[in-house]
Amino acid sequence: MGGLSGAILPPIYEACLNRYGHKATLIGWAIAVFILTASGLFFVTSRVPADHPPKPRWSDFDFLRKPLFWVLLTATTFQGLAHYMPSLYLPSYAIDIGLSSAQGSLLVSLINLSQAIGQPLQGLLATFGSGLETLLIWGFSHKLWSLAIYSFLYGGTAGGFAVLRPRFATGIVGNDKNKEQSLLIFGILTAMRGSAIFASGFIVATQLDESAKVGSGYGAHKWLRVIIYVGAMMIVAALGALGFFIRPTWILGRKPKETGLVGETSEVGMR
Predict the structure, then answer these.
(1) pTM of the full predicted structure?
(2) Three-state SS letters, the chain
(3) What are 18-67's pLDDT values in tens digits?
């Protein structure tokens, strides 16, 4: 639903901004969000308390010694450092190369629409594809049609990564029975990704020279470093695919145990 709403809302924002201005649009949207979310609270049922809440144990944190955890945490962090940058900067890039603000909003809608399609279909290796798309398509795009192709491809590939965190957590634990530890790992991965997303805006701002002149070369010159940054971060995040070859039973400082199973893998994200 997030992808579908993201596909519908940008043109609405554009129309409201052009008609009512930034102040009225921001206040109106804040009121609408408050009313919609607050009304939903009436339909939320209370949580049933656990009869015997589990007490934290040191063994709950043994995943910190698993190489698989650190591989997937690193991949999640690098992916978060770049994931939302095309959605954030493509409208500005479009205006710089002579397109209208409405066409820039259309590009964001395409990213979100294809994300809704791609999330059920893509897996971890999608980050590699989105990195190549950024470097090979966005950088050379100076027309609406080529940017539209990039937006659709990027949303369809990069968007698939976000749905893998629960599977990462299960893969790190190694089974579906230890739900408490899986939830803990999922929370850590989500917190790290959120922190990376927060930091990405500040990092990319240092790569963009607002005073630079727009040219006809790669990345319109002004956006060259931003495009390289996004592409590089996504390709580095794809190295998380190495987790496929790391067993969840491997622990740092401990000799791997033979399980007797041929070809056992961590079962994460090669979908």
Answers:
(1) 0.77
(2) CHHHHHHHHHHHHHHHHHHHHHHHHHHHHHHHHHHHHHHHHHHCCCCCCCCCCCCCCHHHHHHHHCHHHHHHHHHHHHHHCCCCHHHHHHHHHHHHCCCCHHHHHHHHHHHHHHHHHHCCCCCCCHHHHHHHHHHHCHHHCCCHHHHHHHHHHHHHHHHHHHHHHHHHHHHHHCCCCCHHHHHHHHHHHHHHHHHHHHHHHHHHHHHCCCCCCCCCCHHHCCCHHHHHHHHHHHHHHHHHHHHHHCCCCCCCCCCCCCCCCCCCCCCCCCC
(3) 888 888 889 998 998 899 888 888 888 777 666 666 676 776 788 888 88
Q: What is the dihedral of CA 85, 90, 91, 95, to 10 degrees?
A: 140
Contacting residues for 212 by C-beta, under 8 A, at least 6 apart: 221, 222
- What residues contact residue 29 under an 8 Å CB cut-off, 6+ apart? 13, 16
When computed from its CA atoms, the radius of gyration of the chain, rounded to whole angstroms, is: 21
Tell me which amino acid residue 25 is. Answer: T
Mention every residue, 6+ apart, whose C-beta is less than 8 A from residue 214. 96, 97, 220, 221, 222
For 133-142, the pLDDT digits (tens) are 999 999 999 9
Distance in angstroms (rounded) separating the CA atoms of residues 180 and 61: 11
Measured in whole angstroms, the distance separating CA 212 from the mean position of its chain's CA atoms is: 29
Kindly give, in sequence order, each residue whose CB lies less than 8 Å from that of residue 104, ignoring residues fewer than 6 positions away.
90, 91, 92, 93, 94, 95
CB atoms within 10 A of CB 205: 10
Q: What would the two tokens of residue 27 be? A: 């206040």
